[in-house]
Amino acid sequence: MLPEPDELAGALLDLAVPHEDIDTAARLSRRVADDPEALACLERSVALLVADMGTVRAPVELPAYAGRCGATARYFPLYVFAAALPYVRAYHRDLGVPEEISRRTLADVGRGVALHRRRHGTGGLLKPRWLYLHFHGELYHLGRLQFQRTRIGSWTGDAAAAAGLPVGLGDPALGVHVPDFLGPLTPAACDRSVALARAFFARHFPREPYAVATCGSWLLDPQLKRYLPADSHIVRFQDRFRLSHLPDEPQDLTPVRYVFGTTDVPLDRLPRRTRLERAVVDHLRGGGHWYVGHGWFGWEETRTDSNG
To answer: Mean pLDDT, to the nearest integer, of 251-277?
Structure first.
């Protein structure tokens, strides 16, 4: 199940793992190959990951690496994804998913490794759970955005029903995600992504009628409008969505983590070069809090920005 080191290197390259991490991952894979318990853990992980491929399921927990080497534990999820790669590729081929979309979707593994190094200063991927969606056929990268096949929750269901849409709890929905390291979040790029997604899901998942798209993100905290101009990309992105829920519990570190790449630096030492950096820092230093907003829009709506 574990590819040989040269095959593993090729698979990791296909998954956009940064070059500086491929040599280490290939070298450490020998520890897994020589450890029957670790190989059994790998086999169980892959089996759980690809079970019922393509169904929209509750989050799964994969077994943790059974060995003692901390460095190998950090890289172990990469071995799971490399071993699962043939299964998800076969699923994409059976659906008729274009190779380019399949490749860009699965390349999120490399983004995860880059984020890990940015935040922790080491190679590996300690929190791979997000990527389980990609390798189970539930999430696709289309243009600037990612779209997750999901179900309508109570907040969105209540808000959409109140707006007159014939939807309810548990109906199909598409979750919108904004990946890192992919350039500006321009309205034009978002328009193109939504258009690509409408065509993609109508073609490949015609039995799942989507009435709404949803998003849960710090980008949807309405307080950002106090600091950013109305024509900023973030505000224009916010205005695509109707706010369905703003939790009582703040998540102050979430925007700090995404904007600065770390939560270990004191606020007074963080840079304030851009409007967004100043907004995140000044709001917290002034005693404010940040929240993860939850929003939605009708999937067939045509409005595209704050003026639409």
So the answer is: 95
